[in-house]
Amino acid sequence: MKAVVFYESADDVAAKAPEHFAAHVAAYQPYVERGELLMIGTFADPQEDGSMAVFTTREAAEAFVARDPFVLHGVVRSYRILDWREALAG
């Protein structure tokens, strides 16, 4: 079971994100190094569609969003974490 974090962007995310981007990367890098964060990024239109991250556990996802500068400084309006049952095609 994986955990997917969906972020809803705050108004004018393109203007707000750069100020906190380095801190955001610094916050997620330890999760990458421990193998707990598998993917993170924006959708094609971050303002309209937001972004997402895939974690190996819900606990890791919850721990990350609790200290993510994008959450703490209002770069994202809201987030939700969903448990995800990964299925491979083929």
Automatic annotation (TrEMBL):
Domain (YCII-related) spans: 1-85
Question: Which SUPFAM superfamilies does the annotation name?
Answer: Dimeric alpha+beta barrel
Question: Pfam families attached here?
Answer: YCII
Looking up Gene3D superfamilies in the UniProt record yields:
Dimeric alpha+beta barrel
Family according to the record: Belongs to the YciI family.
Name of the protein in its database record: YCII-related domain-containing protein
